[in-house]
């Protein structure tokens, strides 16, 4: 599938900001499931300080802003050719070893809730068990926008019974790691059949299965990723793969607006 993507992020401040530094993971890379045909990334009001591939294989850019500006406009856009591989992303590559993806993180630490969830997973082969875990996460955590935030942990979202794709991915990863699998969080885009415009990027999980490699599971939609998905970044949890993060100097209040379009 040939997908045209536009992602616009605007930060506005109620007072001049003397300095800000943003880390951007907004540049997809070609791989087994996709080929990046063309892509551009710009930041109005900021300049690029560095670019590199991080330890998780993500294209990363550092952008700085200075001079008392009150707005930063970041625009990523391009065309990606995707392939349906039945959710199989490919063999493990990169600097980060597989054992690192078995470790717990502050957002993905198993407590009583996730432990009980894993105990309820039906017996079966590896992939069958993971699909069973995905079904349980989707059944027990309703998709509700605004019910959680970026700091909500897997246990907190599971206890609340509400969350978004980020929470579904965190709960699934925590459970999969408890079951003994390496797991990673993936951020990217999803082509939704009934509309082009979206309010946020998408997130799902990948688990490394012996003999298959990395396999993608989207609990929010109850499926393995197909050719409607575009991978951008991955890591142990949201903090390793978040599209934009940074620091700023000053006491200005920040307002964020995001516009995303994914069309065939």
Topology of this protein?
Elements: E1 2-27, E2 34-44, E3 47-53, E4 59-82, E5 88-90, H1 112-119, H2 126-140, E6 142-143, H3 154-160, E7 162-163, H4 165-178, E8 183-190, E9 197-198, E10 202-209, E11 213-217, E12 229-235, H5 238-241, E13 244-249, E14 254-263
Parallel strand pairs: 6-7
Antiparallel strand pairs: 1-4, 1-13, 1-14, 2-4, 3-4, 5-11, 8-10, 8-12, 9-14, 10-11
Helix pairs in contact: 1-4, 2-4, 3-4
Description of the molecule:
The chain is of the alpha+beta class. The protein has two domains: about 1-80 and about 245-264, Sandwich (Immunoglobulin-like); about 85-240, C8orf32 fold. The chain is built from five helices and 14 strands. The chain has helices at about 110-120, 125-140, 155-160, 165-180, 240, and strands at about 1-25, 35-45, 45-55, 60-80, 90, 140-145, 160-165, 185-190, 195-200, 200-210, 215, 230-235, 245-250, 255-264. Strands 1, 2, 3, 4, 9, 13 and 14 form a seven-stranded antiparallel beta sheet that branches. A five-stranded antiparallel beta sheet has the order 5-11-10-8-12. A two-stranded parallel sheet has the order 6-7. The chain is globular. The relative contact order is 0.24.
Helix-strand topology string: EEEEEHHEHEHEEEEEHEE
The CATH topology annotation of the largest domain reads as C8orf32 fold
Q: Compute the number of structural domains.
A: 2
What characterizes the major β-sheet?
7 strands, antiparallel
Count, helices? 5
Per CATH, the architecture of the largest domain is: Roll
Q: What ranges have pLDDT less than 50 throughout 5 or more consecutive residues? A: none
**First-residue to last-residue Cα separation:** 7 Å
SS-based structural class? alpha+beta
Give the tally of β-strands. Answer: 14
CATH class of the largest domain: Alpha Beta
Which shape, going by the Cα principal axes? Answer: globular
Q: Give the DSSP E fraction (strand runs of 2 or more residues).
A: over 45%
Helix percentage: 10-25%
- Our Rg estimate from Cα atoms comes to 18 Å
Mean pLDDT: 95
Pfam families: Bact_transglu_N, Transglut_core
Protein name: Transglutaminase
Domain Transglutaminase-like: 157-221
